[in-house]
Amino acid sequence: MKKMTLRTVPALLLIAFSGAASASAFQLWEQNASGLGTAYAGSAAVADNASTIFFNPAGMTQLSGFQFSAGVNGVKPSYKFRGDVGANGDGGDAGSWAAVPNGYLSWQVAPDWTLGFGISAPFGLSTEYKDNWIGRFESLKSEIKTVNYNPSVAYRVSDKVSLGFGLNYQTINAELSSAIPGPATSRLKGDDSAWGWNAGALFTLSPAMRVGASYRSAIKYTLEGDATTAGVTTPVRADIKLPDTFILSVWQQVSDRWEAMGDVSYTRWSSLKSLDVYNRNTGVLATSETFNYKNAWRLAWGAAYLLNDTTKLKFGIAYDKTPVRDADRSARVPDNSRLWLSLGAQWNAGAHGKIDVGYSYLHVKDPSINQGLLVGRYDASGHVVGAQYSVGF
Fold it and tell me: What string of H, E and C letters represents the secondary structure of the chain?
């Protein structure tokens, strides 16, 4: 019984590296709502509110005085399993609505220096199947939550170049349950906190064009927790590494009314080859889980149209490549490449601030799976809605 319990621990940690409806693998791009309408194109170059702290801290030099921005995005993934052999118990829809909140504050302390602080949720997942589904021995409920605290500083080197740097203190909490023969249920819980960093540069090529580049470091965790099965609890630990990400963005004022923006990002998922899990009491290797993830690109293009003095309309499209190989796809959350189709709007109330709203439909290529009894495909898709308030004073 103890061996079976330990073998489920990699599944708990696998949640952090499995698919989510919002982005490939476990990443959440929804760190503001102002970028949702353009599918987050130009994320490291737009720098029009304090949420640039997350995407490119150098963008704070574009903001004067105090700037505050806060919002929330609702993410609704959908994963419905269809068995090739007509097996009973499809599990229903494993996805559910989840909130991704954020808040940022920047302060121009001197003409060339700006300080900032952000709170965000870079990674997250919540899925749940019906108790009697065919894959209940693989997964019943899976949940992961992170909170990222990001103090930052930016310096304007010249009218053309700005640099930014930030520290990231990030916490992670995860829980997993699954069925085991008996019948009984196995439940796992684990948590940790760790440090990382992010940096960026912003190049103002002209008053109508900016190019931004940013990097977020990998973060290493030693996740510790307990695995409980039929009343037996075992302390366990596992070292995990969240991958680093590089973003290159461009923003251009095409005309008095039109803006265009583009984005390419690269996440080094190939660092996740395997996961080793140890018994904390004995230090003995309990099991090893293979990932074999590959590096992944994300490409985005967006535009904004100034309808009148107070209203701006936004449009965007993005292609998000999954790092998951078909042979290694997990039943926890079957991930695959997806296409973002986004719309949004901004209402500018002047000194009273700005309100941004956005919506994205995520068309996910139906993932196939062949893991034990789970032989078939998933109908997969996603919806993201968001709202944000930004103000300067």
Answer: CHHHHHHCHHHHHHHHHCCCCCCCCCECCCCCCCCHHHCCCCCCCCCCCCCHHHHCHHHHHHCCCEEEEEEEEEEEEEEEEEECCCCCCCCCECECCEEEEEEEEEEEEECCEEEEEEEECCEEEEEECCCCCCCCCCCCEEEEEEEEEEEEEEEECCCCEEEEEEEEEEEEEEEEEEEECCCEEEEEEEEEEEEEEEEEEEEEEECCEEEEEEEECCEEEEEEEEEEECCEEEEEEEEEEECCEEEEEEEEECCCCEEEEEEEEEECHHHCCEEEEEECCCCCEEEEEECCCCCEEEEEEEEEEECCCCEEEEEEEEEECCCCCHHHCCCCCCCCCEEEEEEEEEEECHHHCEEEEEEEEEEECCCEEEECCEEEEEEEEEEEEEEEEEEEC
pTM of the model: 0.90
- The arithmetic mean of pLDDT across residues 358-379, rounded, is 90
Q: How many domains does the chain have?
A: 1
CATH (domain of 35):
2.40.160.60
Report the pLDDT value the prediction gives residue 190, as an integer from 0 to 100: 84
Domain that holds residue 374: 2-392
Neighbours of 99 (CB within 10 A): 12
Q: Apex CA 73: angle with CA 67 and CA 76, to 5°?
A: 170
> Looking at residue 22, what is its pLDDT?
67
